[in-house]
Amino acid sequence: MNSILKKLSELEPGEKATVHSFSSNDIFLKLMEMGCVPGESLLVEMRAPLGDPISIMIAGYHLSLRLSEAEHILVEPFVAN
């Protein structure tokens, strides 16, 4: 099955996805330490009024990410059947 990958920054509030990989090695360790590990499910909770930062629920806690960080997280969105 081919999966369509998106950047986390492209998802809208209410969308669910699974972390797939990272597009930058520079931020890889920081994101891993925050619980953004491949295979982990997440929910985009909200965006700030001007769009940055975004709030996600991942690994059982709330995490705020700048869009510049979310740009480097590649996710596989859940598709409703």
Automatic annotation (TrEMBL):
Residues 6-77 form the Ferrous iron transporter FeoA-like domain. Keywords: Iron. SUPFAM superfamilies: C-terminal domain of transcriptional repressors. GO terms for molecular function: transition metal ion binding. It comes from the Bacteria. PANTHER family: FE(2+) TRANSPORT PROTEIN A. This is Ferrous iron transport protein A. It comes from Phnomibacter ginsenosidimutans.
